[in-house]
Please model this.
Amino acid sequence: MNNPIHASMTAMRIQKIDHYTLRTEHIEATRQFLEEVAGLRVGPRPAFQFPGY
Model:
């Protein structure tokens, strides 16, 4: 379908992701996937009272 709103938009390039939230029951497998497949790395994290990276 031809959408005039989308036709006038230009692509925005992602330069940096500072942080995001992802909930999972498989935290180690998710961390491993994001590091090995997506090329992300673990960064600083406050001492929350729940597990995470």
Summary: The two ends are 42 Å apart (CA to CA). DSSP finds two helices and no strands in the chain.
